[in-house]
Amino acid sequence: MPHRHAALKLVAANPEPPNVESALHEVLDRLGPSIFAGLLDTEGVLRYANRAALQAIGSTLEQVVGTPFESTPWWQACEPSQRRLKQALASALRGEASRFDVRLATSSGAMLAMDFSLLPLYGADGQVAWLIPSARDVTEREQAQNQLLLTRHAVEQANDALLQVGPDGAFRDANAAACRLLGLEREQLLRLRVPDIDTQIDDAQWPDRWRELYERGCLRFETSVRHQEGHEIPVDVSVSFVTSDGEIFAHVCIDDLRERRAAERRIRQLQQFDELTGLPNRQLLFERLGATLQTSTQTAVLVLELDRFKRINDGLGHHIGDAVLREAAERIAATVRSTDLVARRGGDEFVIVMPAPSVPALHTAQALLEGIARPMSIEGHEIHVTCSIGIAAAPADGDRSDILLRRANSALHQARLLGRNQVSVYAGAPHDDDPERLALEAALRHAVRDEQLDLHYQPQIDLVHGRIVGVEALLRWQHPTLGRIAPDRFIPIAEETGLIVVLGDWVLRRAIEQAAAWQRAGLPPLRMAVNLSARQLLQPDLARRIEGLLAAAGLDPRLFGVEVTESMLIANFDQAVQQLRSLRALGVEISLDDFGTGYSSLSYLRRLPVDVVKIDRSLVPDVTAPAADVSITRAIITMAHQLQMKVLAEGVESEGQAALLAANQCDQMQGYWFSAALPAPALEAMLRDGRQIDPALLGRRSRQRTLLLVDDEENILAALRRLLRAEGWLVLSATSAEQALQLMARHEVDVILSDQRMPGMTGVELLRRAKALYPDTIRLVLSGYTELQSITDAINEGAIYKFLAKPWDDEQLRAHLREAFGLKEMGDQNRRLDREVQVANRELAELNGRLQSLLSAQREQNQREVGSREAAQELLDAVPVPVFGIDDEGLLVFANAPAQALCGRGGDLLGAPATEQLPQALRQALQGDPMLVTLAERRWWAMSRVLNGNARGRLLVLLPQAGAST
Questions:
Q1: Using one digit for the tens of pLDDT, what is the confidence trace for 57-75?
Q2: Domains in the chain and their CATH numbers?
Q3: With 0-12 CB in 10 A as exposed, 13-18 as middle and 19+ as buried, what is 176?
Q4: Is 0.70 topped by the overall pTM?
Q5: Crossing angle of the two packed helices 361-373 and 318-335, in degrees rounded to 10
């Protein structure tokens, strides 16, 4: 089957950008000296070749350009390679990429083994516009592979399973890793054929597979193999066709995918399941409940909350509280049916979804009350806990997930009011008859009037300098009798009733006024961010009202921002985008909140006028986080930066999280670690105190070179410290991998020198973790043990820069470390320049956008003014009396048709001083007093009036005196 590559496509603002070909030339020339690359037109004619390719055949570009590619000197010495190329050219014109090994000739007559690729490049019209051939010298790799096959010892040391297969599918050779993978002895394995272990191929299919391998030379695919004990193992298989001394066989390399698949399952587990209890989380709950409501005629939903759980956390500690939650989850799951869904929604709340219940939900709820109430024995403590349960049923109480859960919550609230350890069934009354909802709704209507609402402000900190650069305004409600009411209780009611519009307007006005007051008080400039609701975003005059509020308060729009969530945008995407563009045109910053928890679609993100991507707290990693979690966060940051967006991480709760975010180039953060949301006076005091993150944590200060030594032998560490004392470096030391990770969280480490054999975690494993968490470090191993395969693998994957042996030579060790510091500083400089370029590009893009908005607004204003002038001209031309306009510099700038007829002159009347152009009799009238004048054998009252406002100058009007003539 054809080799599959991602197709390339030209994407530009214009259908055929004129500089595409030159840009491709520049890219091809920047490839490494061992990579040949060129550019073909759709006829297969060479249009460009990079320097490496030309040097190989000793030709100039002019000598080969315009020649059919298969006729160029590279292909003249190998006819099979020519045939394969022709097939690839035909496939490329159909949009299919090709990759295979070929032999290419050089000017010296030598033959190079090359890994060759031919990719189609699409134009803006969706058709193949160019073909890009590229080849990489793999001669050394072939030699290494041959040496690997001939050297039995090297084969046996390989971690990957290696086998030789003949044309009949029989195994001719296998290394120890292959035997371990399949659970077989070597003699047993050599009696088998490929169809005996490959679950996706049988005897009838094998000849076709061998023929495909013969034609293509190599294959790569995923399949699964059978273990001796019967279970299947997912594997990645690479097969190469080999001819040696007239003998042909296939060289097979099998990579065990179980660890990779386990990591993928772990990622899915973290995304959809609660880490503490293993139950489905809130997101998966909504998905499965929605699917259940579509397929089941009757569904019961139970919301269970542990009573007074906070006392356990506060009195016995969070670890005991976590154990109670795990025990409660197990008891709930044991009480309900296997077909029922049990989820943890958060905190001490659980949700049970019962499709087509076989017994009344009330019976199940009573069993849950009894099960939870049984004493729990945890770490020597006998713990008694009860629960309250609210029940709602579909379709009687609603046919949507959000409605059903909300009504189950209402029933839960009633159960708590009954004294807890109770079950309450939703009464089935409509919203207007729900006492709790009606009471909150009525109270909410009076909250603004009675000044029960307030705004708290959570600081947003720049992770480059550590300073507060913004705040997020958060709504708080302190009821005089009900006390503090959580936003998640009253915001849904406000959204359903439409009160959210009134609340939103109040929040916008109050936040803008507060931001302007801080600026007038001389506090450092910071951006005020306000969350918009879905209803607010759809209001057609939103941008105009915000512009009015900013102007009234005197706040620079660049010091204001709005936050929206992905879910708000999907339903009315085009309208929402238009609203955000209008706001952005004012200079208002747009933030996309809770990124990573909703749709997180790149196709949407690249179309949104967004300045800041806010990473949800669930995706903020710590120093102890798995490498996969850190990679997800780093990928989001890199993606946002590539789209010219800043990144702000929410919910940062530890120093380790902040350090990791700073190390991975996150721009800003907010969270309880720095500060909770504060009332305005408290935040103002914080700003005046100049509170900020310690620059040492961010690693942005000017500092000395930092080396981390890791060895479980203290005498080795002491010897190294003595040796390096004169270098002037900051030398940190750790006797374990765990201690080293803690030091890396608190210090910006440039170079790590680690022993290999240590208890708990080897040096290679530590450096792999350091590469994932702090990829900019330079990592070396200093060991007296040569574990060749693990060291080689680590070097190949970039986890280790160098391997140094014990005992060491003092001067050589110093030289290696100096070289490592030099590489680190060079990399730091490159990254710093790259960040500066990215920041400059983002600022330039922002300025360009604002300039375009201003130009557009100016054009509209000019068009309105031209239209107004033309309308005024037509109106005054229709007035049957002469009218003259004189500007504040005394120039005659306007004369209607009767005025020009009276003076007997056309357009040349305008533009000169009025005292020169007007008749002598009218010049006195310019002083302001009405007077009688005689013009064109008629008597006129001449009256002059001063103009104020946008029009400046005087208006001179002549009114005929009734019955007067000369």
A1: 888 888 889 999 888 888 8
A2: 8-137 (3.30.450.20), 143-256 (3.30.450.20), 280-428 (3.30.70.270), 441-690 (3.20.20.450), 706-833 (3.40.50.2300), 879-965 (3.30.450.20)
A3: middle
A4: no
A5: 140
